Amino acid sequence: MEEKDWNIIAKEALHDDFAFDELYEHFFPRIYNLIYARVKDAATADDIVSDVFEKLVTHLDSFDSTKASFATWLSRIATRTLTDYYRWQSHRQNVEWDDVFSPKVDDKDAPDGQLLEQEGKKELLLALGKLSEREQQIIELKFWGDMNNKEIAETIGISSANVGVILFRAMGTLRQILGRE
Question: At what angle do helices 111-129 and 160-180 cross, to 10 degrees?
Answer without folding.
Answer: 130
